[in-house]
């Protein structure tokens, strides 16, 4: 595997990763144990602002939710790059993603929202590495009134 393959893929997709965000409370952005990297939940920040605030089913559209999940995943990848010492080619597998969707009690399209993150994982890392296990749950609220938060677990080499 040539060095810089994932960075080249990001450029090809027109994706510029943000800087890895500092935690907003008393936790670390990621933990590495053995060959696993566990990344704390990332909000859908882009350029320092939330992509979507509020709740799905009450003003936030499915497309806005999907875009928020994608932005959250890109923030995960920024943390992952930091955990890998800047070398995303060390990523062997996207093991699991967890999605939290701020929504009304009646909202039931959580999976479609989370596809914004899952689709980005496959788009960036390819089918073999990017396909993953996943949990998606609806919650009454998230930090800073974010519409979506995504966490992840990755295998690195």
Description:
It contains three helices and nine strands; from the N terminus they run αββββββαβαββ. It is α/β, with parallel strands linked by helices and 157 residues long. It has one domain (5-13, 31-156): 60s Ribosomal Protein L30, Chain: A (2-Layer Sandwich), CATH 3.30.1330.40. The two termini are 12 Å apart.
Structure summary:
This protein is of the alpha/beta class. Helices cover 33% and strands 30% of the residues.
Main CATH class: Alpha Beta
Query: Helix coverage percent of residues?
Result: 25-40%
Name the helix and strand elements from N-terminus to C-terminus, one letter apiece.
HEEEEEEHEHEE
Largest sheet: 5 strands, mixed
Q: Helices and strands: which structural class?
A: alpha/beta
Number of helices: 3
Strand content: 25-35%
> Could you name the ranges where pLDDT drops below 50 across 5 or more consecutive residues?
none
What's the alpha carbon Rg, rounded to whole Å?
15 Å
Find the count of extended strands (DSSP E, 2+ residues): 9
**Mind telling me which CATH architecture this is?**
2-Layer Sandwich
- Lateral arrangement of strands in the main beta sheet: 1-2-9-7-8
Alpha carbon gap, first and last residue: 12 Å
Protein name: Endoribonuclease L-PSP/chorismate mutase-like domain-containing protein
Pfam family, one: YjgF_endoribonc
Organism: Caldovatus sediminis
InterPro entries: Endoribo_LPSP/chorism_mut-like (IPR013813), RutC-like_sf (IPR035959)
Produce the secondary structure layout.
Layout: H1 5-13, E1 30-33, E2 36-42, E3 45-46, E4 49-50, E5 55-56, E6 59-60, H2 62-83, E7 91-102, H3 110-130, E8 133-139, E9 148-156
Parallel strand pairs: 5-6, 7-8
Antiparallel strand pairs: 1-2, 2-9, 3-4, 7-9
């Amino acid at each position: 595997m040539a060095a810089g393959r994932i960075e080249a893929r990001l450029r090809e997709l027109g994706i510029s990763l943000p800087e890895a965000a500092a935690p907003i409370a008393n936790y670390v952005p990621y933990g590495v144990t053995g060959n696993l990297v566990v990344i704390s939940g990332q909000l859908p920040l882009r350029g320092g602002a939330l992509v979507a605030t509020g709740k799905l089913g009450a003003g936030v559209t499915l497309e806005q939710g999907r875009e928020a999940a994608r932005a959250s995943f890109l923030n995960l990848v920024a943390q992952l790059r930091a955990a890998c010492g800047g070398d995303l080619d060390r990523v062997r597998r996207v093991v699991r993603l967890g999605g939290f969707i701020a929504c009304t009690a009646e909202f039931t399209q959580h999976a479609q929202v989370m596809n914004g993150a899952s689709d980005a994982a496959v788009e960036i890392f390819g089918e073999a590495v990017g396909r993953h296990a996943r949990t998606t749950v609806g919650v009454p609220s998230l930090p800073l009134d974010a519409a979506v938060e995504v966490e992840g677990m990755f295998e690195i080499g």
